[in-house]
Amino acid sequence: NNFENRTIYLGNLHPQTTVEEICNVVRSGILQSVKLISEKNICFLVFIYASAATHFFAQSNLKGLVIHHRRIRIGWGKNPGELPNSIALAVTAGASRNVYIGVIDENHHDNDTYARNINNNNKRKPSVPEESVLRKDFSEFGNIEQINFFLNGFCAFVNFMNISSAIKAVNEFNGIHKDDIHRRFDNRYVKYRIRFAKDRCGNPPKVYNNDKQNSKNKSSNFNLKGKNND
User: Which runs of E-coded beta strand occur in the chain?
Assistant: First the structure.
């Protein structure tokens, strides 16, 4: 009985498949963790909610899941049991595997708007550390899936393999001992806001609009005079 199971098994992966490529096609719900076992060409996804795992299982088996031109086998993994209370509480407060790192501007509440304004005015703006530095520093909290930069380096997103790593990073940079953690990283992140961002795996799957496409195809069968081209 997999009614309360939160773990999905992925098999028949291409040997060159990366965790980033897997997460790029996973939708339906945020993940607690992702574990790729490259030597066996398999991966285990643990969703936060069992309902999300069930939805992903059903949709993937119905529509198919393809990575590197291979159809992936979808199954159930070992049931991890109930979500730990500490993680459940953090998720209700917005926690995910994705951590946002952006420059703090005391005169602007909306940092994204501030960044765009600077960018549009061609002014010199601060930027977050380069990828190699971010990867080295934040790997101390856990394994990293990917790092993305936006707005020409004004902000970055560090996606961890496990939500616990992200929770640890955000808590330490914003906790009562944050001065200690900043000194540990030579105060590189004192001027940055570090918080949770959305896990892209929680985005809804793209829906193909058959009605719209059928209408488009139908109209394309007629020329400008209203005659059928067939």
Answer: 7-11, 31-37, 42-47, 66-67, 70-71, 73-76, 98-103, 144-150, 155-160, 192-196
Domains located in the chain, CATH noted: 7-80 (3.30.70.330), 90-202 (3.30.70.330)
Distance CA 95, CA 220 (A): 47
User: DSSP character for 130?
Assistant: P
Residue 151 has pLDDT above 90, yes or no: no
Q: What residues contact 59, with CB distance under 8 A and at least 6 apart?
A: 28, 205
Residues 163, 145: Cα–Cα separation, whole Å: 11
What is the Cα–Cα distance from 51 to 119, expressed in whole angstroms?
42
Question: Is residue 206 predicted with pLDDT exceeding 80?
Answer: no
Q: 107 by DSSP, 3-state: which?
A: coil
